[in-house]
Amino acid sequence: MRLLIAIAISVLMIGFQARAANAQTTAHGGVLINLSTLGYGFGAAVPVAERANVRVGVNLLTFSHDFDNDGITMAAQLKLRSVNTYFDWFPFAGGFHVSPGLMLYNGNRVEATAFTPGGTTFDLGNDTLLSNPANPAHGDARIAFKRVAPIVAVGWGNVVPRGERHWSIPVELGVVFSRAPTATLSLAGSACLPNGTNCRNIATEPLLQADLRQEEANLNDDLSVLKIIPVISVGFSYGF
Q1: Which helix (H) or strand (E) segment is 193 a member of?
Q2: Where are the beta strands (DSSP E) in the chain?
Q3: CA 27 to CA 95: how far, in whole Å?
Q4: pLDDT score of 2
Q5: Using only C-alpha atoms, what is the Rg of the chain?
Q6: CA distance 58 to 79
Q7: Within a 10 A sphere around the Cβ of 40, how many other Cβ atoms?
Q8: Is the dihedral of CA 97, 98, 101, 107 positive or negative?
Q9: Quick check: 78 pLDDT over 80?
Q10: What percent of the chain has pLDDT over 90?
Q11: Distance (Å, rounded) from C-alpha 107 to C-alpha 73?
Q12: Residue 84: burial class (beta carbons within 10 Å; 0-12, 13-18, 19+)
């Protein structure tokens, strides 16, 4: 994460150099804080032309929630971590901008621990099983995205306003073209038939492992819709 922030700072330095070569640009730079569907964010921008900026941002958010999935209790934690860079183009020399960009680091993921109390039933693959009271079923799950993804956004507001104004309220709508995330599941403990007989170790029993892989495949099918991640953002910026 520190390396990627350093890369983002390098992008800004390139922007400063490009700005120095552009005598028409009078603004110096700007900083931004925002709230978006990617989490809490902060960033900075520098002008590289009369109608263009280079902008970088970092987004962070952690959110925990417990839920039930087919009888399995999941203690899940959503972790949003990303580093993004944009080229903000203002075609009409106003606040409206078109911003192609790149998510340099997509660390967005879900991590969860799974537990089924002994004596309760749960579904795994196409089977209904009973969590063994003597060795309840338990495990973990993880959903992660590919690390790099392109972004396209449009919005209103300039982090580096031209003229006498310093404050701005940038609003932005966009999409991240990420490939669908990948889910991985693991379970241990023991599972029995619903009547409590034929208890088997989930980690070593081939049929139960096949059920687990089927459950994992079903989850990945459900996640395929997340190839495109919507981005809605509003923030406050100060130009200097």
Answers
A1: none
A2: 30-36, 39-49, 52-69, 72-89, 96-106, 109-115, 121-124, 127-131, 138-144, 149-156, 167-168, 171-177, 182-188, 190-192, 200-201, 228-239
A3: 15
A4: 54
A5: 24
A6: 13
A7: 15
A8: positive
A9: yes
A10: 78
A11: 25
A12: buried
Task: Report the percentage of the chain scoring pLDDT > 70.
Answer: 89
Cross-strand bridge partners of residue 240: none
> Mind giving me the DSSP string for 135-181?
S--EEEEEEE--S-EEEEEEEE--SS-SSS--EE--EEEEEEEPPPP
Is the Cβ–Cβ distance between 111 and 125 less than 8 Å? no
Q: Please report the sign of the dihedral spanned by the C-alpha atoms of residue 43, residue 12, residue 48, residue 85.
A: negative
Check whether domain 2-239 has CATH 3.30.310.180, yes or no = no
Domain boundaries, the chain: 2-239
Does residue 31 register a pLDDT over 80? yes
Whether 84 contacts 57, CB under 8 Å: yes
DSSP track, 72-87: EEEEEEEEEEEEEEEE
**Model confidence over 175-223: pLDDT tens digits?**
999 989 999 999 999 999 999 999 999 999 999 999 999 999 999 999 9
The predicted pLDDT at position 161 comes to 83
Question: Which contiguous run of DSSP H or E holds residue 125?
Answer: none
